[in-house]
Amino acid sequence: LALVSRTDNKRGEDYFSGLLVAGFNRSSCRSRYESALYRKPSRYKPSARLVRKLRQYEDLHRRCGPHTASYNKVLRLLKPGGAAREAAETGCRYLVWTPTYGLGNRILSLASTFLYALLTDRVLLIDRGNDFSSLMCEPFPNTTWLLPLDFPVKNFNSFNQGHPLSYGRLVKNKTLRNDVLEDPFSGHTPSSFVYLHLTGGYTSEDAYFFCEPDQLVLREVPWLLVRSDEYFVPALFLNNIFDLELTLMFPEKEAVFHHLCRYLFHPSNEVWGMITRYYESYLATAEEIVGIQIRVFDKKRSPFDVVLRQVLDCTLTQKLLPGIDLSHPAAVADRRKTKAVLITSLYTGYLEHIRTMYWEHPAAGGLVVSVHQPSHEGWQNTGNKAHDMKAWAEMNLLGFADVIVTTARSTFGYIGQALGGVKPWILLRPQSATIPKPACVRDFSMEPCFHAAPHYFCRGEKGGDIGAVVPYVTRCKDVPNGLKLV
Ligand code: GDP
Asked: By C-alpha distance, which of 266, 205, 308 is closest to 25?
């Protein structure tokens, strides 16, 4: 029923209001064409400015992409004898992204990196890691975003905070001459390659990346490598060089990641098959889908029975799920009133308990409640293709839900809520194995939280709350030191 009604108005043909460009080979990426049939229509339309910027970006990527003449010229800068002027004349500069941590973190940091590429007219190339290319389709037409395997800089794992080409270290060692970065090895200016370390636990010098003078310096560097596990977009909104363009591209700030996700991340055919099979088997006929994402970071603080009671307290108190009717044990359910509960979790137990509750007792109001959980992998196994495919499929299934309950701090949940365009209820973190009060709160917006936000402004501007500078960047409900767009 839901599928039929969702396909009625041929939304599949409008490419998310111009967010997506036509002209891809349909069979190579079915989700690109079919996801609008399954997802709820978005309340948010991409602005004309964002659409134009994306089309310009796609042209740039085609012109500068791997193995083009321009790419080859700029690549020579990474080898002895490369000519800087020749490379500059191409107008191509690059941003290489390398993955770190779980899939949710990867998607957040990749979307942030792409937005930074849009703002700085750089071409985004990705280190595919073990399995990224089997999870996602190519997002840009007639080119590739995969960093070629013959890229001369190898072993990205060796790039870390202490690396001589790390921006924070270059700043610390004052390798800036007339505001131009000097290569610590050759003494050449500008440096051809700089590493940006933007993961949680970074130093103040690393975080100077977000400041205006540093952006002017980095503009001159042809190759930037980024490692981040963060959604660092809120910090870009606090930068005076970018804020005007960002505001024009995203007049609705609570929908930045929603648009970026729907533009960039199209499940591969294999994953799309998993998503649609599951949807059609278990969810399609429900009047309403309630997604509950349960992530346990610390089993001591969040033992099973506490989390289970917390989930029930949240969903029943907020009337997201119907209570049980103890006074009419033989009540007959109304087949037209169906609610499907989709649980995503690494663990078993939650599903059985909630399912049994609605089996042993009728749901209030005559609702038919069905409870489903696609997998229970037991532990995080990032980098394993089959495991990551399930995680990515489940994030997408969460995105089909009408109501979403997520776990505080979990980036996995952030992806589901953004794909679906749904403002979530957040299960707050239990302290010392007791249910928090309230058990859950409604978030301000569906935007992810930038967990490791810098503590203060750029040089010389210490003091004051960085979460109170502009009305659309505020502190997060699930991570008090974090920042988010609202
Ligand atoms: P976070 O750690 O909650 O912020 O989310 P990440 O996605 O970055 O890392 C957690 C990883 O654990 C996921 O990417 C999956 O590999 C795995 N995982 C956690 N929860 C689930 C779940 O509900 N379903 C599946 N299939 N995998 C999960």
From this structure: 266
User: From edge to edge, which strands make up the β-sheet containing 368-372?
Assistant: 368-372, 338-345, 288-294, 403-407, 425-427, 440-442
Residue 144 belongs to domain spanning: 28-252
Which segments of 302-378 does DSSP mark as H helices, in order?
Answer: 304-317, 350-360
What does the pLDDT read at residue 80? 81
**How large is the C-alpha radius of gyration of the chain?**
24
- List, in sequence order, every beta strand (DSSP E) within 72-168: 94-98, 123-126
Residues 284 and 195 grouped into a single domain: no
Q: Quick one: DSSP state of residue 282?
A: I
> Does ipTM top 0.85?
yes
Number of domains in the chain: 2
Position 187 scores a pLDDT of 65
Q: Is the pLDDT of residue 206 over 90?
A: yes
Distance (angstroms) between ligand 1 centre and the Cα of 398 equals 13
**Predicted model pTM:** 0.95
Over residues 140-184, the pLDDT tens digits come to: 999 999 999 999 998 999 999 889 999 999 988 876 655 667 777
Q: How far is the CA of 132 from the centre of ligand 1 (A)?
A: 15
Q: Are residues 174 and 280 in the same domain?
A: no
**Per the structure block, which two tokens stand in for 13?**
């043909």
- Residue 271 Rama label (left phi>0; alpha psi -120 to 50; beta): alpha
CATH classification of the domain holding 280: 3.40.50.11350
Q: Are residue 281 and residue 238 in the same domain, yes or no?
A: no
- Using a 6 Å cutoff on CB, does residue 104 contact ligand 1? yes
Q: What is the pLDDT of residues 219-233, one digit of tens each?
A: 989 999 999 999 999
How far away, in angstroms, is 234 Cα from ligand 1 center? Answer: 23
The structure tokens listed for 27 are: 């069979």
